[in-house]
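Lab meeting, action items carried over

1. Structure of the two-component assembly. Owner: GW. Status: complete.
Input record:
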Amino acid sequence: MNVLEVKNLCKKYPSFTLDNVSFTVPEGSVTGFIGRNGAGKSTTLKSILGLVHPDSGEAVFFGKNFTEHEREIKQEIGYVSGGSFFYPNKPIKAVTAVTRRFYENWDDSLFKSYMEKFSLDENKTQSQLSEGMKIKYSLTLALSHHAKLLILDEPTSGLDPISRDELLDIFIELSREGTTILFSTHITSDLERFADGIIYIRGGRIADQDTLSGFTDRYKAVKLTEAEFGSADKALLIGCKPAKTGYTAITLSKNADKLPGEISPADLETIMIHLEKVEQFHS
Amino acid sequence: MKDLIYKEFKLALHPTSVIFLTFAAMLLIPSYPYYTAFFYSGLGIFFTCLTGRENHDIYYTCLLPVSKADVVKARIVYAVIFQIIQVIICIPVILIKLSLNIPANAAGMEANAAFLGLALIMLGLFNLTFFTSFYKNILKIGKPFLVSGIITFTYIFAVEAMCHIVPFFRDILDNTDKNFILQRITVLIIGIICYILLTLAACKKSVNNFIKQDL
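Predicted assembly:
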């Protein structure tokens, strides 16, 4: 069963278009939503949450159309966004006191357990917290009403490696408990630790949706010297770009043995970087 | 809706909104343009919206399990609560002023029932112009306040001018003569009706503007 189905979402801005975006998020999965800055990740998430008014298309959560069942759907989802915090100068307990009133399934004991687990002091304001702790507080709010779907919009951006790692551990724990997670990020290495599926958006269009292994197994990383590059079949190279010595590219796994140079498994970051280069290379 | 209004008072409320309520006491000043006291209530609402923008209030509220329409309605109800409280505070202030036999207001209209009715129309105009403009683009808070300021001050000048030019305003509304109390109460009732209609129109148009807006 799909927890979220996005169907033909379109939104036209003067300088950017979200073009027919469709994807699904299966129940119990961790789905990475990747793309470079400005690719349309946040616009997509805002559109499905009703913050942006799409020109056409729909978002269906738990089998219900968002526009028609907005309030009940929002009861079932938790949203955490990195770098966007509300009422930073109010004590945490004041923000919590307000937030809890809106959720039918708010669980005070669960809230307290997360506050303790994350070492959060409810007498502090969010402005007194580190970036990592702010995210943990947002996550605590999102989890304390038993959200069935967590939507994470760049939650690890701007965090130091230790804080990022701590947060990822929490997300892994949540996914093991069966929480469905849609994780939007441009830091693709975060996803390699625990994502089941990948949705890749590029220039406002869904360029690919597959399982993580399906996505990474499809490509190989290629490292070529100047001489190897000269003899290589350029049509097989995807997103070729100059490196310190020679060139790097990716290629479809089935073509890997037809190319010279050093061939290795491709990680998400390598794949995304080179796929983003495709237009530039061919032009 | 009650939870959203709770949120308005617990998180969004700007302290000046409460302080400005005490400005109803300005009606005790012997000679003063009394409409100014009501202008401050608009300033309090402006400050609430301004700090709301800095605190990402609308973004926070829209992510809660509420509709975008309710977000707008709650803010307007919040404003209406302050406006009505201020009008209610004005009633004993006016009665105290009358009991003190303070000389007639040389700087503007007398504080009486008709004045409250006309002030309510002013508040209704503020709601209509400020909120409909604010909910077109929540990031541009200065323009709605400027537009509503121009409209309300134009209205104040027009009413004050009529108190000098139009005989009904000059001789019946702009004094405390008990013989014309019925006419002044009628103006108060008209003011209440206009306030309700203008605020309902503000609510409807603001909701429509906000739903179309991308956050």
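2. GW to write a short summary for the group page. Key points so far: Chain A touches chain B at residues 46, 49-53, 70-72, 74-75, 79, 84-90, 94-95, 97-99, 101-103 (CB under 8 Å). The CA atoms of residues 59 and 89 of chain A lie 34 Å apart.
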